[in-house]
Design brief:
The protein is mainly β. The chain contains one helix and six strands, in the order αββββββ. Strands 1, 2, 3, 4, 5 and 6 form a six-stranded mixed beta sheet that branches. This is C-type lectin domain-containing protein.
Length: 70
């Protein structure tokens, strides 16, 4: 609920989540892997993908997109 109130359910916000090589898995800034059973990502994860929260879901977005961050 806190994150939803900060993002106001309208603008995507980067969470510190990126698709990293060589395995091409979702990884947090501290290099821990995302548990997609707890936090599934909507959309394909590809090279240069970042995880952003939109509403109440995490979405795959190009890392070149200009978004706010938490």
């Amino acid at each position: 609920d806190f994150i939803s109130s900060v993002t106001q359910d309208t603008n995507p916000v980067w969470l510190g989540l990126t698709m990293t090589s060589p395995e091409w898995k979702w990884t947090w800034l501290d290099n821990s892997l995302l548990d997609q059973r707890m936090f599934p990502v909507v959309g394909p994860g590809e090279r240069n993908s970042c995880g952003v929260i939109k509403g109440k879901q995490i979405h795959s977005e190009t890392c070149n997109a200009v978004v706010k961050w938490i």
